[in-house]
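User: For documentation purposes, I need each entry recorded in a consistent format: the amino acid sequence on its own, followed directly by the corresponding structure tokens. There are two entries in this batch. Please keep commentary to a minimum and don't merge the entries.

Assistant: Recorded as requested. Entry 1:
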Amino acid sequence: MTAPRSPHRDDVLIAVAGFFGGLVLYALGLDTRSGHGVDPRWLLLLPLAVMSGAELLRRSMPNTALAIGCAALLADQFTDGNVATIAMFTDLVYAAVLYGTPAAARRIPAVSMVATAAVTVTALLVFQDAQAVLLGLVFAVVTVAPAWTGVSVRTHRDAAEAARLRAEQTALLAEIDRTQAVTAERARMARELHDMVANHLSAIAIHSTAALSLDDPKTSRDALGVIRENSVDGLAEMRRLIGLLRDSGGGTAPAAAPTLAGVDALLAQAGTNGASSGLEFRLEDAGEAGLALPAPVELAAYRIIQESLTNALKHASPGGVRVALAQREGTLTVEVTSPYGDRPGPRAPGSGAGLVGMRERVALLGGQFESGPVAGGNAGGDGGRIWRVRAELPVDEGNGRA
């Protein structure tokens, strides 16, 4: 059970001001019904004190404060009466609507209107005088007016709170969108960096290992040539990527994205890098001639082939590496197979990031991706087992999610 909250500072000021204001009116003899209340006259101070105490609860316990106020107002009717008591009661009605529960905020204005009507009708029946309507008007000023004032203030307060919450929610959603955009861009940059540089670094690692392990001048010279070629190409790719990252949108034109037209060059480079490992590369292109592909699809297919060739250079056994492209029924199929088994000679370490990057590229385009060892001897590996990478990419023009 939680301890009751202490009175708000403003509530204390209202209670003190109301009580001392009532004392001043009492001292001056300014009563609401002078000479019509019970004796002695000082009894009017009791409802005043009770009403002042109820003001201390106007914010923390508004319904309880209003109930106490109603009892104090009723008791005040049997004394000479004090204007301060009535004024504080109107404040309790206002506070009960403003700070009370939503149900109380709906119920109090309706009850005050019904009570006003009942008082007016009763006064007319008892006094048989049209001036009794004035009593109803006074009662309305004391109950209906503060109740509906509380409704108006509460409505504006709730509207302001709702607007504040919407603004906070909008800011939160904007921050989430920004974070997701930054994360997606970082993932895209990581894929591009890996796909562009890993091929060259893998070839450098393999041939440098061969040059160190074989005491053959010709082999070492050929390996150094391959290392130099891949170092220059890798450095150029790194400079291009750094230029793209530093470019703020003006000054230099963005570099063109690679296309499937460059697959032949990829295979030629892979053939040079993999000759010492006994790897041969060939392309089987069954695509429809002249049919344009969406840029995101073409870039994804190129990068998947590039990374698959890099993995073949790292891990494949001697034999044939086949790259197959086929396009039918709105789908571009990319399949790369390589010998799978024990591999003699040096091999470069792998981190698994390449497979993750290929899977992400295909997922962004809404395609399907699979990789792993399968049975089949068309790649020329020992034991008839091959490693296959297969991606199916939708080629509809509306696909721009890459």
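Entry 2:
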Amino acid sequence: MPTPTIDPETMNATVYGDLRIKLITGQLKPAEAVSVRQLAELYGVSTMPVREALRQLASEGALKSAARKAYRVPDLTAKEASNLFFVRGVLEGAAVELAAQRMTKRKLSTLESAVKKTRICLNRRDVSGLLLANYEFHSTIYQSGDNGALALSIDRLYVQTGPWLAHGIMNLVDADNWLGEHDLIIDALRQADSKTARKLIEEDAFWGVDLYRQRA
């Protein structure tokens, strides 16, 4: 039987999605170069969908194009990293206020599951797993606000800050400081307490602000 062909758009979406996760979970580090050929070999595809995925991520600020169509993770200054966390925190604060009025039992259960995964990964010192569970927690909240433009903006900032959140967790703080106040955020959302939820989630995001501001 002939080998089924895979739609180029599907390949592009697959590569793009996986690279986003690698950025969010710190598998791609600040200033790290990204090889088109190595990625093509990794995913078992031609260079075309890889280049398209990299171009898309560069247009969203998650990667930076270099000479000869090469790409790398941005090498931000401490101040630039702090500023990104600040903007993300402000936008997440707005999103959680919207989400607090729209939480369902199913979404609250998803948040609780994400917190459990985070604790398991903390005990195992699994940084990538912890960051993925953390992303699941935050994205569930801002995707629940019924504001697509706001959610998209936060999601892109989340990808941009991912390598720096991972760097901070792995290299700049004690592992016992990995967890935020996620249980308290869930309690506030369960009670539809939008003001408390906003305060808590801003504090959670501003952890990155303070961490890098001290190093600016």
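Summary note for entry 2:
Strands lie at 33-34, 64-65, 71-72.
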